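FAQ: What does the model actually see?

It sees only this:
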Amino acid sequence: MKAHACGNDFLILEEVVAQGTHAALARRLCARNTGIGADGIEFLERRANGENFLRLFNSDGSEAELSGNGTRCVAAWLAHSEGRNRVALGTEGGVRMCRVIEGNGPVYRIESEMGVPRVAARTIELPGIGAVAGAEVNVGNPHFVLFVEREDFGAHGLSWQELGAKASRSPLFPHGTNVEFVKLHSAEEIAFRIYERGCGPTTSSGTGTCAASAAAMVLRGAARELTAIAEGGAQQTNWPANDSVMRLTGLAEIVCTGMAFPAGLADSDKTAEAGR
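And it is asked to produce this:
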């Protein structure tokens, strides 16, 4: 199955399909020209105790702790296929509870509990650039948030894509980091761009939305209920206090369903079919 949240697109496969080939499947199936095309794959494991657990692999084959948008896409699929309008999804970044607010397919509006963000101001040094001030934010996965003034979201003489690539791969972040470039429109609204670890520039990010919002609330005095606008559209965040759970609300749309050929085939033979 393929779904997207504000253009941030994911394939959803049952864990049993992978058979230990998660990274190879992600690289092959997520390829835009020779595969189905996606930012990553969410592998859904249905455990014997009734729990649902997600493993996220980015389009480059690397594994990440979680994706807010990917988790929401899985919740939309379970609502559509199994009528489950409230579901807890385990991830390497913690359990995320998702609740369908409205929708009956293919588009769902979903509220997700995203954990308690941790925000700390941090200035990093990048070769050839110098000091870059921002905020280190953890929402179950790592983020570095910069505040910018330019309409094109560039900073330090670079485009946001160029600076995002340098910061994301800096050895200052041993496991890499997602990078957000945030512009405050008002106390209740921000706009931002995302350079995603393991993927590159993306149209949206659920955890990126939360990280950008949390940094704006803590370090720039933004309202505790925010509209955060990325290239793919707007999402809403609600974070009553620094020690409370942040909630993220946005859309997820099911694009198509299909099948993946067995993981036991040679990697060169693995592909997938999808049809509307």
